[in-house]
């Protein structure tokens, strides 16, 4: 594995650990006594320290080390998890995050860490030196299932497993050679099953003066130590027996012999032994796989067309079977690209905490359904708009504690962030129990901005009025706070979600609270569309937005406020001619008696789109119109059809 | 060849009677005319998109963009496919048939154009032997798609 691959892994894992630290710190604040949480944080900090040390990022090593010290004392109950301590710890996590981000963007991971280490040291009451020596006596190794199985088997066959920690002399020459001799000595009556660092790293001298090996052997502990100690340039040798215990769920877990000091350090590690059978795959490779698969889908379309023309039963059968196989393949590939929304959600608790403190409000954030999965390309896009909506809820939604008290509400405001999966969509909702939207103020602003005419104002339902907050240039809060008034309105939020094929709406009750609901597609790249012809053009309408297709009589169209409408199953809905919407040049010799229409919906709203003819339903690959054509109205992209033709995909949400 | 006399390879194309140049490293290929897929409600100089071996590429009519009179396409009409930092755009030109080495010393003057907007699309005037042509600012032309499409 090359250094860059190590680096990617280091960055990825560090980010995960920082995220874990943040999450657990916030949990700890709620349950300051909980030792398992402290243990979790400690473990993350410790692992990061080790990784940073190996990769040579000194500043990160020092920050995590200082962080670890404070945690250590919290675990020993010589330090309490009070607000001040929590602030410093969270700040330290931020600093660590900044360093990792710097490394990720190609920097050297250098940062002025004086201030934060001093703060951490201020929290720490114990001298540094003592910490250092304590570290050294613990042998830390992670075991996977395979290791455990090997150890268990060896023990059964009468061998013993030891963890051997060897420290070379400070100025040892030929470290790799010494290490080799150590391994030789250890393997005289057994074999080494694992080492930290890995054997390949030790061979390449990629280790400091210390390494640890797990060995199964018939030799006794003393004999092992003596053998290793007799090699020159060895400073210390420590060996511990590795013991296997079988847990109730029949999963073998392994623990080290409890030496008084090591016990505490290793206790959080025990929890980690539940291993998921996963591998890390570079996201570029997944993207490449997806691209290749998209080519396959295009060719599948082509084959289906050809077999339809040739009508050879053998060919048809083969093509059908291939279609089924690629269908399953498609499902698997799409699933591989799904990631839990937690990736985005996890940063919110911390944000809410600091925002509510800045504003002097009391706010509890509840996150539900963080495990809900979405396509990675969508996850990448929804972070910023969600931040905006949550800020909106905190800033404009939740009232000041005094006001809440006066209104007979609990002082602490409640914001709920929910994600759930339903049908072909994922829903994300942000609900607060704040002041709600003031209808009159929104209306006033809407009239001012000429979104509606003053005389129409009274005819609108509350729901319709509330949706105006998504129009451009809308902010009903007069004073500009630090959070809002940055020139980015909810219209931008709405546009972002709509460009992803999503729909956003707001429900609010004055004095009771506000709920933003966002509906998002599960995936972007392959969609099921209804292909239609309009003049010479082909268009694809996403199946998810179609209610049904129908044929209507031209005489059934009537006019309301000069708009063409029809009565569709009891609903009066507008009729739109796609040839007009898209300015398709069509010449007709006579008026049509019947219209083919596709009824589409966006939430509760519906419309009938008039087309020339239906071609059929098809899975297509959504391709962008390219970097230079990003914002074409009501067109979300294009797709290449089986015959090489191109159909534009209609974003029906933009039409409604 | 000295530093200040560095060479640039340029593809020469024709619009009406004038000659223009595009640096060859911006050009992915030169294609014959083909059918476009119309982009609804787009600005007039955007002819549409084409499917070029699986990639969808927006096409600009350079005559329109540079305010020349519109003429029917001919056998000679070509589409220059630009690849700028991995992004694609195509330019329709009257003909493209020449590649030239241009030396720094042959860059003679800033371009002259009727309007400020058009000025933006031009980079330099180059005089080579008896020929005079204008080097196109391909980035500005391609980016004009963004605003024109809204």
UniProtKB/TrEMBL annotation, chain A:
Residue limits of the CheW-like domain? 526-656
Q: What is its EC number?
A: 2.7.13.3
Q: Say which domain of life the source belongs to.
A: Bacteria
Q: Which positions carry Phosphohistidine?
A: 46
GO MF terms held by the record:
ATP binding; phosphorelay sensor kinase activity
**Is GTP-binding one of the keywords?**
no
Cite the residue spans of the region called Disordered.
248-273
- One biological process term in Gene Ontology: chemotaxis
InterPro entries from the entry? Answer: Bact_Chemotaxis_CheA, CheA-like_dim, CheA-like_homodim_sf, CheA-like_P2_sf, CheA_P2-bd, CheW-like_dom_sf, CheW-lke_dom, CheY-binding_CheA
Instruction: Indicate what this protein is called per its UniProt record.
Output: Chemotaxis protein CheA
> Which is one Pfam family of this protein?
HATPase_c
What region holds the HPt domain?
1-103
UniProtKB/TrEMBL annotation, chain B:
Might you name a Gene Ontology BP term for this protein?
signal transduction
Q: What GO cellular component entries does it have?
A: cytosol
Q: Where is the CheW-like domain?
A: 7-147
User: In this record, what's one Pfam family?
Assistant: CheW
Alphabetized InterPro entries for the sequence: CheW (IPR039315), CheW-like_dom_sf (IPR036061), CheW-lke_dom (IPR002545)
Its name, as the record gives it, is Purine-binding chemotaxis protein CheW
Gene3D superfamilies reported in the protein's UniProt record: CheA-289, Domain 4, SH3 Domains
